[in-house]
Amino acid sequence: MDLRRLLEKMMDTGASDLHLKTGTRPILRVDGVLGPTDDPPLNSKDLDAICDQVLTPKQKEQYLREREIDFAFGVPGLARFRANFFYQRGTAAMAVRHVPLGVPAIEDLNLPPIVEQLSSRARGLILVTGTVGSGKSTTLASMIDCINRSEARNVITVEDPIEFLHRDEKSIINQREVGLDTGTYLSALKHILRQDPDVILLGEIRDQETMSIALMAADTGHLVLSTLHTIDAPQTVNRILSFYPPHQHAEIRFLLASTLQAVISQRLIQRAEGKGRVPAVEVMLNTAAIGDYLMSPEKTLMIKSAIQEGAQQYGMQTFDQSLMSLFTQGLITYDAAMQNASNPSELDLRMRGISSSSDTTWSAFEGQTKEEEEEEGAGKTLSQEPPDVPKGITKY
Questions:
Q1: Of the spans 132-141, 201-210, 254-263, which averages the highest pLDDT?
Q2: Is the pLDDT at 2 greater than 90, yes or no?
Q3: Cα distance between the two ends of the chain
Q4: What does the pLDDT look like over 353-375, one tens digit per residue?
Q5: Among 74, 78, 39, 26, which Cα is nearest to 53's?
Q6: Lowest-pLDDT range, 71-75, 243-247, 377-381?
Q7: Which residues pair with 162 in a beta bridge?
Q8: What is the pLDDT of residue 273?
Q9: Is residue 35 over pLDDT 50?
Q10: DSSP reduced 3-state for 92
Q11: pLDDT > 50? residue 383
Q12: Least C-beta-crowded within 10 Å: which of 23, 26, 133, 235?
């Protein structure tokens, strides 16, 4: 079985993932959509041959013992890949993800400008969240690259496995891979503060011990970057609290209010032209108001409105504001925006131009300022409705 040929096909089609299992044709995920290739179905010998091609003897021993393994590998002249080999119904299966050789710049990813500003923070905890495949690792790699190009800092990463490779520029970057450079994820974190770090990247916060180390490192003056599988800022706060017993929640809320710098949440949306995806991004910054909401269980749900209201002053944005901006720029369709909106009804009204004249929190995302809207609408009466507004709905 020629794995390289499949990986080349993956690259040629722009696929993010390749799925292989016994009895099925190889399947590619292109722009978030799964589809089979024209290759014949694989048998168990094909899968075993692929394992022999990419696994070291030590990795294969672990795979056979534990029946699954995470690792990364590079193909000369092609790219790097992250892979998970596992068993299903007694036979081998695998998922392979493409990792670009170069680290994309923040501006090339269509991320908000505030993300680059966050990269220069001296201390605190920054979390990038989202579902699997939402681009969290790419965003973190871009932030590390931004630090590397602009500041002299000691950056230490703990990853399982290493995905993006960084070369030292202004910074020193030490990338540690679980199973290769350190025994376990937790053992690496227990010693990391003695390695003189300025910036610590944790591939993923998985449990209470990892979360505690991240909070402690941020509280002692380090910049800590990591990921969580949550969909927005309020859920991120609740997920962090879920790691701890109830009697510790007040202490953790205090630590979050004093150390959390930002939560960046992402969703990848299909581009309007049909090829490629673009991120819709929610950004929460720990302002004085949000710090107060983090401290109080009764006020946590108010974080969402604080993000929306802090758009102009602080550069924050909700998912729906981000979707509005992408739609206004012609990057996504109306249907895609509605499918991914947190509040589809409100976003629909916004897209139709129906909003309170006193609400300026969306101005930066609607393609024109309120003043421009007023000038454009000068001379019109309130009873003159745009043609796309349903009968009975009037601007106010």
A1: 254-263
A2: no
A3: 66
A4: 776 655 667 877 877 544 444 45
A5: 74
A6: 377-381
A7: none
A8: 86
A9: yes
A10: strand
A11: no
A12: 23
3-state secondary structure the chain: CCHHHHHHHHHHHCCCEEEEEECCCCEEEECCEEEECCCCCECHHHHHHHHHHHCCHHHHHHHHHHCEEEEEEEECCCEEEEEEEEEECCEEEEEEEEECCCCCCHHHHCCCHHHHHHHCCCCEEEEEECCCCCCHHHHHHHHHHHHHHHCCCEEEEEECCCCCCCCCCCCEEEEEEECCCECCHHHHHHHHHHHCCCEEEECCCCCHHHHHHHHHHHHCCCEEEEEECCCCHHHHHHHHHHCCCHHHHHHHHHHHHHHEEEEEEEEEEECCCCCCEEEEEEEEECCHHHHHHHHCHHHHHHHHHHHHHCHHHHCCECHHHHHHHHHHCCCCCHHHHHHHCCCHHHHHHHHCCCCCCCCCCCHHHCCCCHHHHHHHCCCCCCCCCCCCCCCCCCCC
Token pair for 15: 């696929």
